[in-house]
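Aim 2 progress. For Putative endocytosis protein rme-8, the working sequence is reproduced below.
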Amino acid sequence: MKDNPEMSKLYMTGVFFFILMYTGSNVLPIAKFLQLTHMKQAFRPDDANCSDIMQRSILGQLLPEAMVSYLENHGAEKFAQIFLGDYDTPEAIWNADMRRTLIEKVAAHIADFTPRLRSHTMARYPYVAIPAIRYQQLERELFCNVFYLRHLCDTVRFPDWPIPEPVKLLKDVLDAWKKEVEKKPPAMTVEEAYASLGLPSADAQDEATVRKAYYKLAQQFHPDKNPNGRVRFEEVSQAYEFLCSRSIWTGDGPNSDNIVLVLRTQSILFHRYSEVLQPYKYAGYPQLIKTIKLETADEQLFAKTEPLLSAASELCYHTVHCSALNAEELRRENGLEVLLQAFTRCVSVLNNSSKSSEISVQVCMNITRCFSVAAKFANCRAKMVEMEQLVIDLSRILCFRHLSKLCAVATECISALSEDSNLQMQILHKGVLWHLLMFLFQYDFTLEEGGVERTEESNQQEVKNRLAKLSVESLARIGGYMKGEKESPVNSIARSIYNSILTQYVADMLKNDEPEELLKILNSNCMNPYLIWDNSTRTELSEFLDIRIRSITNPEDLSSAADFRYDAHKDELIIGGIFIRIYNEQPTFTILNPKGFAIDLLDFLNKRYQQLGHMQNQNDDSNMYKTQHILKEMVAALDSLKNVLQNNAGVEIQCIGYFRLFFNILSMNQVKPIQHSVLELISLATKNQECVNDIAASEVLGHLLLALLSLTNSQMTCLEILHALLSTPKLVKEALAKGAVLYLLDLFCNSNVPQIRELSAELLAQMGADKLNGPKVRLAVGRFLPPVFADAMRDSPQACVHMFETTHENPELIWDDDARMRVSKLVVDFKTKHYKIQQQNPHAIWKLPDSNVVNNTANPSEVIVGGVYLRLFISNPGWTLRKPKEFLAELMDTLLGLRTKPENEGEVLEMSASALCALLSAQPSLADGIPALGHIPRLFKQMAVQPSSTVLVLHQLALSDICVAAITQTECMHPLKRAMESKQDIIGIACEALNRLFMSNQDQLVKQALDSEMVPYLLSLLESRLNNVENPAMTKAQIVGALKSMCTSQIWGDKVVSILDSNSVWAEYKEQRHDLFITNTHVSGYLTGGMPTTAGYLTQAMHKGISTAPPPPDKDDPMAVRHDLL
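Predicted structure tokens for this construct:
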């Protein structure tokens, strides 16, 4: 059959009519037959309104185009499946009723042949074309590609119907649109066709009547039978073909309903398949723009049933939303101007009764969206700047709040337009801002927090909430707050209005991409340092916005908005956008930018302080109220600054450069609250070392010292500040120069608060520990107090206070009530004098007294060396000294005459020698350090002047091997011999010293003895009676021991022996041992010191339940040794 040459003539047999009348279900063979033959018939209908496949298929007049397409494109099986079933989809509309219609129409068409066939089964069918079957189910459908467009556009029933080839469908739809637009009226009318067939035109004729008339006339005028009837035959044939074609259905010209379907189909394609279509430039703009323009000019626009303008504007939106290429193409085709005309036309008819389903509202939504997308492109925005009517129309739309979705779309458009600074100004001047602000109060945050699933279709409040969020975004973009993709130019005018109307805190929240938080704040009551917001402020703002919206006299006046201020805020001090009173009530509230707030506070304080200075210079009594107001504001600002520093670590560094201001404010004695506030502020700032360094550079410590005395209730705070500051050497130097030592001594001596006294002592010790200025500080303290107090302050301030208040009598301190009163009074006198000077000039320098103001707190007759009372030390040499090494050096200097000689020189020398011997006896290791100090040579030089004291010291030094080694290197025998010869009463101690020296087996000493003829001299002493010596026997024993020790010298021993043997006296002592005459004690018997006792500040008895002992020995003194541990 495939190769049968007669196949193209099958239709002449009527087989396609007969086969489609089959009512059974076994249609697959029929489908296969139809698939094989339907496109190969020589039949070609003259119907320009049909698609190519319908013109080429014999079934085009019988079946819907979708069925023919299924047969051709999907095969017989798929066709049979649909032919037997019921389908109502965008790709297939077919059911039993349509099959029944098909059978009925075919049966009616061949009704004349049926009786003939019954009477003669071999009768041949005289073929006559059947009129195109019109199915009621497809009455308003438009088939394109493989889809029924009305069903495809029914997004309710078929929301996501798949489109396998969106690009091909778009092309076919564009072609269909072109054909529909270019469609012309048919060549003849139905009446003319009826007239050609000889039928009356008054009523529509049924198909059988038309067919019979045609059949009769065709036979009559067929050229084969009637050569003269050719013209008439062609006229009859054309009339019948017209009545059989679909042209009779299509009406006269383009069908607007079909155009709407074409437009909506394109919108669906661009919406669903934007990624696929994005690379393609839209080719339908000329026709689309023309359609919009024609519809806009139509006076009956809003009376039409077909929403052609709505569909066109929607397609325009989707095309530009899909691709930037399309937006630019729309602009080049002058589409923006045409859209604005349609937009203005539709906006003009909006009113308070308009509904979202009306054409005008839908067109406004679509065109607004189109402008929103187009505004993303610079060229389009430049064009919109010239279209001032656009912003005016958008502002009018926002007046109709009941059209929430339209207002939301308009708000989105305003947000998009705000990317251009010129459009921003248009938006401001046309009053759009007031509408957007009003939308913020339609927000219901409880709906967001409810957790209930909701949609905009079912919940109108959800639309209002979205509108409020969009308004926040639009406001942010108008002011230029947002960053990233939504960044826009900064608009200072808009920001000024926001700061005034919404407060700076809420305005700054526009920077965040979280509108919910901002909207919740505006629609609830709030009182925090950033915002005072309640029903009254909301009402006040709403009334203001209503007035601005209704104002038509001067809509461009924005000054009143920038000057707007709430009644609740008028009496509040606002610095850096923060309500100072509220912040001081809620100091732990988190500040968003604490450093910036601190800077604002500092600038405010500086300006107010300068303002006070100008007012004081004017001496105008009328300024008194203003002055009090400024002082009140300064106190509040200082408290806020203190709270910022206290709750935000690291912010104190912002105070650098302002400490001169702080300390100047500290001297405002007439305003105590300010002084207390700035004092706490300084205390917090001093925790930062950089701030301390800046204070040091400012040289303002005098103000703090004045406050230390004037603010008695804040003395502890002042001391704590000093404690932080005095860790810097430069500030120690300044504090010393400006009298800090004097003020601290006053508090230490005269304060009634133990903690203040202890902290004062600690600060004095801290100053004294400074490497550069410490010695001067200790010297200054020593001008008023015994040295022991300075050391006690260093080691234990608490013990130092107790020591000051109790009575003491020990080698290092003699202290009683009288001494305490005298010292305290003198300190007060000096302090008062300097304080008066410093009040006049905070930078005044304190002059240190030239000498001790209290020469001796004890008996003036007491001898003091190195801070030690010699009388008491000699009587108690076991006392644990604080600085034994320094005491030793002082004793040596005193003894050897290196210091100024007092009037009682003899007594001092004697006591110094006794004290030195007692010290070395109690702490023998101290003697090892004497040679390094260079005292040994001076000792022997001084021996001629002070034989008694120097020999006594030599006697003690002879016990140290290090000292003996140093003595060996010094010319010692001649001075010692001369001293013994000049002062007979020291012979005993001198001989003992000689015995100790020669026992060290130092050859150099033996040589010096020989050179100085010490041996003959000693032999003469043995021969004499030694009447002036206290213990002659022991002295002679020491001489014998010394001579025998000299004999042991390897170098000079023989010479000594020869001298001794030549003397007859030596024979009497040579062979005898004299050890029994020599005592074991290292201290000569004539010393009255007695047995040393172990005592000290930590071990002696208590007085009044409080320790009277000074601090322990200097830990840094290597020569300090506890006697009680020996």
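Confidence is low (pLDDT under 50) at residues 1080-1126. This observation will guide construct design in the next reporting period.
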